[in-house]
Records
---
Amino acid sequence: MHCPFVGDCVAYRSGTIDQLPVKRGKTKVTTQFFNYLVLVDPAGQTLFQQRSGKGIWQGLFEFPLIISEDEVDVTRFRESEPVQQILAQTQVKDWSRYNESPIIHKLSHRELKVTFWIVKVDALPALEGVQTDDPTALAVPVVIARFIDAFDF
């Protein structure tokens, strides 16, 4: 068989055809722990924030997110500074972990271990975001959409 591009082929002229194509190394997969605070008030309203900046899920909505270096138990998570700052603005009625073990959500270059924390509050805290009683009306990542389908607000 004769290649029609042999006259213009740099690899043929340089004698490197057997070395091409060059296989690129695999992208290193990093693991991140996503902890979502699902704040729910007595009226069934919850709070979403829109992801800004570049990166995964840019422009989509999500619950307030706290990223941790590893999986956290309820005590450690509840006592963390970011959680304390959010909860200082409201009265917590009940607190629970929705999923017993993290939900694994794989992306091409990242593995997310997602935990949803249900926090029933007297009133939603004054955080930037969208308060809604219809979370299905917002554009959200798949892992959050699956949670919304399963959770009863």
---
Amino acid sequence: MKTFYRLLRYEYGQLFPGLLLIVAAMAAFTLGALYFRLNNLYSSSVHPRYEDLYVQINGPFFFLAAYIFLLLLFAHTIRQMKQNGKSLYTFLTLPVNRVAIYWSKYCAFAISMLVLLVAQFAIYAVGYSIMLGKISNHSGGRYIMDNGFFLSLIRSDFIRLLFPFGWLQLLNFISMFLFSITVIYYIMLMLQSTKRWSLLLAVVAGLLMYRIVNHIADSNTFYYDQKSVINDSFYLLLLTVLLVIISLRIVKKGAHS
């Protein structure tokens, strides 16, 4: 366990500088775009709902860009480990199980993904406070809606995608979260092995994730076709488990080195 903790701390340390830069860039672009958009609103303007305003300033796009860059960062650390013969594992005094190396990277990336999600929620909340201050200046606080922030969370398709409010949304979130962590590691292992045909499994799982995102984004489908949503989420979880099993077999055999 102590060796695993050392590996986990090392792996997260490898990701943290890049993660910090990604979060800072996401916050700067999102809040900067919100600031300039609010400057174009006046007391006589029709003030949009916050969740609509957040879409207008491309807030979801900035998160998607940060998400993609985080995936690329994780892929880079996997490739760097293969290329760097003097990695930490060379200097460990105790024998290191290949499985422990896999799970240390997996958990480090899971923590990084959670940090990105927490940062996104914080940015969303700060943005609402900024908008609230702007509206207060226009109306003297007369037109501020009670529980406006909570209502914006409920009404926002983007927020429902990242922060579930019910058991079905939680199932969707867990399946997509675990898949996001698993698939990038799986793809890198496949690219370094002779079993590249197995990348087809990642493609199938990716299509399932795309279907789930569409279900959540489309409120009508989300509320009236729950059976399809549940089936897709369970299938995605099963495929994710399969990707983990295949990845562990490759890591144990050293077929990727």
---
Amino acid sequence: MSYTTREHLSLMHEDDSQYPISVVEQETGISKELLRMWERRYEFPIPARDTSGNRMYSRAQIDRLQDINKLLAAGYRPGFVVGAKEEKLQQLLQELPSAATAESNGAAPRQLDALLELIQHHEFADYRRQLRQELASEGVRQFVLGIAAPLQQDLARAELGDALPAFTCQLARQILLETLQFAATLLPLPNANGLQILLIDLPGDNRPLELLMIRTLLLSSGADVLFLGTEPPVEDVIECLRHCSTSVLQIAVSAAAVTPSNRQLVARLRAEMPAQTTLWLSGSGAEDIAEPSNEPVFRRLHDLLQAVQAWQNPLRET
């Protein structure tokens, strides 16, 4: 028996229902061609077949594709997430800025829609001006959480779905980077005796915009954040730790960066960093790369910010 698209949509609440590729494309926004390519290249999703040989997908597969869509929109590579196990996908989802850092309802949809419309029409001068206005209105911290993080994901989703040309998304990201850099200059200078953090990522992460958002949020919490750029050479990191009064080496680790070579790199940093420096690990890959010790591990960015605030304002015994 065959069903129309409308009939299939009406049955989506049933866990054992099967849906044709046209319905999956409609619900997830992932094209039929891309679904077939993922099936060949990553062995997911592997559909069942009806009596006519047509591809049929389960509700669980559609839900997983929705999760994969969120991760792709956040900047993860298809080769890393499409064939990943469900447990790893859930770990990655917990790291997404929109979920990990949310402390309010975020930006109103019309604010983000207005920014995306300016991008779509290549009105980049107005786009830059609007970002500055949102920054002035929201303040640095809420601008990162409510504007920059969801906008980053919207741009990635638009590029993935061919809704915007790659060059358009790249220009929009660069202007967002510029705005975040400008936002950092608006923050008061940190206390000379306060917490100083050297923030780094690991080879293979390649997420400069997300790293800059983390840096800006840390700065907004009063920390003095040193930054050597993305994927700095380990020798530079060690030299910086030796010559600067750095209390914390904070490594942002996505699950994509958990590799044997990066495990060795972190082990070297543990062995060679000064005794007065504490190692913090944050991100979805933090637990996988940490040693069983007392070094703090932060799965959520919100927890990292709380740790900074606790360091800056320790509870006094009464």
